[in-house]
């Protein structure tokens, strides 16, 4: 499948290959020509798939787990995460959401897979903060300047001393299912610290 940005170059390359194959036709058996042509096409296809992979939206989820246990103590988990962040020289990534929120599950999957998952593993301590039915841990949402009226998931990033570095005040993560993987990676790269 060709993408709009590189159509012309690929068509030109394909025409050049066909011309070379026509010129070589009298020297090589037809089978060899076919093998070369298939190999070249496979190379183009692989390059296109790699380029598209970086532009994909976050991977959907089929089943939803218990990301936000009802009995979790978010304040205690944040305190523990801050201690771990100091020890491991990481930042704390708070994700406000709820088990009923499909986009929360999509974002969580993305934070554990691929390049974004690697950045989170190396540079962040992840804490899920349950908002219930928009009636739970509202004091923490306020403390970390993360308005929930724009939707969830909502994200806050803290330094290891608890200082707020970023909060998604405009609903940037609210539609995680349409977020591009490359954009999530860029976001994490920006806020990962040293």
What is shown here, in short?
With 194 residues, the chain is of the alpha+beta class. Helix content is 48%, strand content 12%.
Task: Spell out the blueprint of helices and strands.
Elements: H1 7-24, H2 30-53, H3 74-88, E1 91-97, H4 102-110, H5 114-123, E2 124-130, H6 138-143, E3 154-158, E4 164-167, H7 181-191
Parallel strand pairs: 1-2
Antiparallel strand pairs: 1-3, 3-4
CATH superfamily of the largest domain: Glutaredoxin
Helix content: 40-55%
Average predicted confidence as pLDDT: 83
Domain count: the total is 2
Q: How large is the share of residues in beta strands?
A: 5-15%
Lateral strand order in the biggest sheet: 2-1-3-4
Please write the CATH class name of the largest domain.
Alpha Beta
Number of strands: 4
Q: How would you describe this protein?
A:
With 194 residues, the chain is of the alpha+beta class. The protein has two domains: 4-53; 74-191, Glutaredoxin (3-Layer(aba) Sandwich). Helix content is 48%, strand content 12%. The chain contains seven helices and four strands; from the N terminus they run αααβααβαββα. It has helices at 7-24, 30-53, 74-88, 102-110, 114-123, 138-143, 181-191, and strands at residues 91-97, 124-130, 154-158, 164-167. It has a four-stranded mixed beta sheet with strand order 2-1-3-4. Helix 1 (7-24) packs antiparallel against helix 2 and helix 5 packs parallel to helix 7. It is globular, with a radius of gyration of 24 Å. Mean pLDDT is 83; it is low at 47-52.
């Amino acid at each position: 499948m060709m993408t709009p940005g590189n159509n012309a170059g690929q068509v030109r390359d394909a025409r050049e290959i066909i011309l070379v194959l026509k010129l070589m036709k009298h020297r090589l058996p037809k089978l060899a020509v076919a093998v070369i042509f298939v190999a070249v096409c496979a190379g183009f296809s692989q390059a296109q798939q790699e380029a598209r992979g970086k532009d994909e939206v976050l991977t959907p989820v089929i089943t939803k787990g218990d990301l936000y246990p009802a009995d979790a103590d978010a304040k205690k988990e944040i305190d523990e995460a801050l201690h771990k962040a100091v020890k491991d020289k990481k930042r704390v990534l708070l994700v406000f959401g709820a088990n009923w929120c499909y986009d929360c599950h999509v974002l969580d999957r993305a934070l554990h897979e691929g390049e974004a998952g690697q950045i989170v593993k190396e540079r962040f301590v992840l804490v899920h903060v349950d908002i219930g039915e928009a009636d739970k841990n509202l004091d923490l949402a306020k403390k970390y300047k993360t308005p929930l009226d724009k939707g969830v998931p909502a994200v806050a990033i803290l330094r290891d001393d608890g200082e707020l570095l970023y909060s998604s005040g405009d609903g940037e993560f609210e539609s995680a299912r349409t977020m591009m993987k490359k954009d999530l990676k860029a976001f994490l790269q920006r806020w990962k610290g040293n």
